[in-house]
Design a protein that fits this description.
This protein is α/β, with parallel strands linked by helices. 27% of the residues lie in helices and 27% in strands. The chain has eight helices and 21 strands. The chain has helices at 33-43, 58-64, 81-87, 89-92, 111-124, 180-187, 203-210, 232-252, and strands at 4-9, 27-28, 31-32, 48-54, 70-75, 98-103, 128-134, 143-146, 152-156, 170-179, 192-193, 198-199, 215-219, 256-257, 263-265, 270-271, 276-277, 281-283, 288-289, 294-295, 299-300. Strands 5-4-1-6-10-7-13 form a seven-stranded mixed beta sheet. Strands 14-17-20 form a three-stranded parallel beta sheet, covered by helices on one side. A three-stranded parallel beta sheet has the order 15-18-21. A hairpin with a 4-residue loop joins β11 (192-193) and β12. The longest helix has 21 residues, at 232-252. The radius of gyration is 20 Å and the shape is globular. The two termini are 39 Å apart.
């Protein structure tokens, strides 16, 4: 949607990954995580997109240099998501309409999900629209607090939640749409969280609600799409989800997979219809397989 500007938050230090490689460059099925995020934002046809990095992320900055149309802005100090977004004010302040904000560690989000979020934001004329989901185990995630009229009024992080708030099953995805002017007016009012010494972007919901602004939510039916990646364990789970998404696409196109559970095909491979892939086959990126072939078992291309 050409009346939306996109901001990707990628300045976090990713300490829980226990890796020298920036989180955004970790591999998921043959390509860096960030490529999936850039792809989905391109698919929803934003007016323009920026990414917020820290000055320490030289490897990620170098990787992004050839990416035309992606503006890089910097967060000077690691002071949380609200401060990171504030670092991009000069970029999105030029827009007079809407901004879509998402984190770099949500590579599973689908185009249709973002389109639904953006459409609801526009149709409802909301100041803020939050992508949410209902999960059975919301441990570690921000909860959506609603008022007596079932309107979203606050996002509470787990560290700050009461016992009753921790029982809430509706979670925050970290993906939002804002009216630009409402966002600009509210960012500066976010106070530092004393426990974490950070400025939480989630606090903007309570600020907007207190001003009587309209806040909407958009339910993500498949909660797996909004799973954030903050550890190697979560990276592995996301890779597995993406692997089956890739396999399902090949099967829809007429490729026979004898054992999807033991078949590994990277993003960017090409396989013709009526080809049969036998168990324990690994096909890496940029491999091209024609029609009516038989690959495997126990094969790596």
């Amino acid at each position: 949607m050409r009346d939306f500007t996109g901001i990707i938050l990628a300045a976090g230090e990713s300490t829980r990954m226990k890796s020298n490689l920036p989180k955004a460059l970790h591999d998921i099925c043959g390509r860096p995580m960030i490529e999936y995020v850039l792809d989905v934002l391109e698919q929803v046809h934003l007016k323009r997109t920026a990414i917020v990095l820290s000055k320490k992320q030289e490897a990620l900055r170098s990787y992004l240099k050839p990416k035309k149309g992606i503006k890089v802005v910097f967060q000077m100090r690691p002071q949380g998501t609200a401060d990171a977004l504030k670092s991009g004010r000069s970029f999105f302040a030029k827009s007079k309409e809407n901004v879509l904000v998402m984190c770099v560690d949500t590579p599973l989000v689908r185009k249709e999900t973002l389109e639904a979020l953006m459409a609801k934001h526009k149709e409802s004329h909301a100041s803020c629209t939050i992508l949410t989901a209902y999960v059975e185990n919301p441990s570690g995630l921000g909860r959506i607090v609603r008022d007596e009229f079932s309107k979203a009024c606050r996002i509470i992080e787990e560290n700050d939640a009461s016992f009753s708030q921790k029982q809430i099953k509706e979670i925050n995805s970290g993906i939002y749409c804002f009216k630009v002017q409402e966002l600009l007016q509210s960012l500066s009012d976010i106070k530092m969280n004393e426990k974490k010494k950070e400025f939480y972007l989630t606090d903007i919901v309570q600020i907007l609600y207190g001003r009587g602004k309209r806040i909407e939510t958009c339910d993500c039916i498949d909660a797996n799409e909004i799973t954030g990646i903050n550890s190697q364990n979560e990276l592995s789970k996301a890779s597995e989800s993406m692997r089956f998404r890739i396999l399902e696409e090949f099967m829809r196109e007429g490729v026979t997979l004898i054992s999807p559970q033991t078949t590994f095909i990277h993003y960017g491979s090409v396989i013709g219809k009526d080809t049969v892939i036998h168990p324990f086959t690994f096909i890496e990126s940029a491999v091209r397989v024609g029609e009516n072939c038989s690959i495997g078992p126990f094969c790596r291309l």
